[in-house]
Amino acid sequence: MSDHVITESLLWHTLKKLGIEPKVEHKVFGDPEKLISQEFVRQCYVDRKKVLGGDEAAYEYRWGSRAEKELTKRQVLHFVSELYDTQWTIGHPQ
């Protein structure tokens, strides 16, 4: 939602709210870390980029070419609003 870019730490913070955590096997998704960092990258749904700076490796994720072709921002907003049981109009939740 932020120009199609999210830091790895914010991604996991957000997914944790949905009960999806790194290094914790999920009953539907299996290994979520492997699913996102390897499988979604391999299928071009996301691009994973190492961010320079700091002592530890940090990554950010961007929409991949396949996601750009298959999804619109409106579809993502609709999905997120369903998750949070909120109706959206352009620019504003209701």
UniProtKB/TrEMBL annotation:
SMART domains xrefs: MAGE (SM01373)
Cross-referenced InterPro entries: MAGE, MAGE_WH2, MHD_dom
A single cellular component GO annotation: nucleus
Domain MAGE, residue spans: 1-86
Coiled coil: none
Pfam family, one: MAGE
Gene3D superfamilies according to UniProt: MAGE homology domain, winged helix WH2 motif
Top-rank taxon, per record: Eukaryota
Protein name: Melanoma-associated antigen G1
UniProt source species: Desmophyllum pertusum
